[in-house]
TrEMBL record:
The Ig-like domain, residue ranges: 1-54
Domain Fibronectin type-III: 155-248
Gene: unc-22
GO molecular function: structural constituent of muscle
Annotated CDD domains: FN3
The protein's name in its UniProt record: Twitchin
Entry keyword annotation includes Coiled coil: no
Top-level lineage group: Eukaryota
Single GO BP term: cardiac muscle tissue development
Length: 274
């Protein structure tokens, strides 16, 4: 007996295949939501079945960072903005491993339009690829970002080079070091007399050498250099031995003759030839 069927809903296309009747709706809109009824009819009568079609909004990621740099031992907060129908289920993984609620320093809070991730006392093990899965009754969407753990730069590589010493200045030099995961922006150079406190002679040295001015002749001086990145200032490289400001022998030979008053004065400091 031939069966006939019809779907009671405008702007739709009915498909029958192998005894199964389907209704195909293309370009679904909010207006497609509602009650749908299918009637099967033959010469003996008809039967029908109805159902309600709800049009849902799938999860949509509106804003998510792609790469983050977290200072070790610091605290941080990450916000990911999303849209879609509630209720929304959220799952977070790090390097494809599910982050359990039992992790004491990792927490997250779900709001209507964003999720806030809190990490306290950041560890090196917190580095990696994070994936945040948003799912509702309609679909699944995944946001991801890469986190790198950074720290302070190490002390510059020694030993400290000392050159061009004269009675008022000298040149210090050093080598690059581990940058702590962030570019070294500059160096801080300090000096102090042996019995005095440290004095900053350059707070923003861009090179790996610096000419220290203002030395006092025949007085010992200590030196120190620290590297700086966005996290702050690292430990100091200090010179191995004190530096004494004095004229070099070559300068003495060009300015003094043996037996002169200047020659006798410099001999008293051990710089003249006898």
């Amino acid at each position: 007996m031939e069966k006939k069927f019809k779907w009671v809903q405008a702007d739709t296309r009915a498909i029958a295949r192998d005894g199964v009747f389907r209704l195909h709706i293309s370009n679904v809109q909010n207006g497609d939501e509602g009650d749908y009824t299918c009637e099967a009819i033959n010469s003996l009568g008809f039967v029908h079945t109805s159902g309600y079609l709800k049009i849902g909004i799938p999860p949509i990621i509106h804003k998510c960072p792609t790469e983050l740099f977290w200072p070790e031992s610091d605290n941080t907060k990450v916000k990911i903005f999303y849209g879609g129908d509630q209720p929304m289920n959220i799952k977070i993984t790090r390097n494809n491993e599910l982050i359990e609620d039992s992790e004491p320093h990792f927490k997250y809070t779900i709001f209507d339009d964003y999720i806030a991730i809190f990490i306290r006392d950041i560890l090196k093990s917190d580095a990696g690829l994070y994936q945040v899965e948003f799912s509702n009754e309609v679909r699944v969407a995944i946001a991801q970002f890469d986190a790198r753990i950074t720290g302070l730069p190490s002390a510059p590589v020694g030993p400290m080079g000392v050159s061009h010493i004269n009675k008022h200045s000298c040149t210090l030099s050093w080598r690059h070091q581990h940058d702590g995961g962030l570019r070294v922006t500059h160096y801080v150079v300090e000096r102090k007399d042996v019995t005095s406190h440290w004095i900053t002679v350059s707070s923003f040295c861009k090179d790996t050498s610096f000419n220290v001015q203002g030395l006092i002749e025949n007085q010992n001086m200590s030196s120190g250099v620290m590297a700086v990145n966005e996290n702050g200032m690292g430990p100091a490289l200090e010179g191995q031995n004190p530096i004494k400001a004095r004229l070099s022998r070559s300068a003495v030979s060009t300015r003094c003759t043996k037996g002169s008053r200047n020659w006798r004065r410099l001999c008293a400091f051990g710089m003249g030839e006898t």
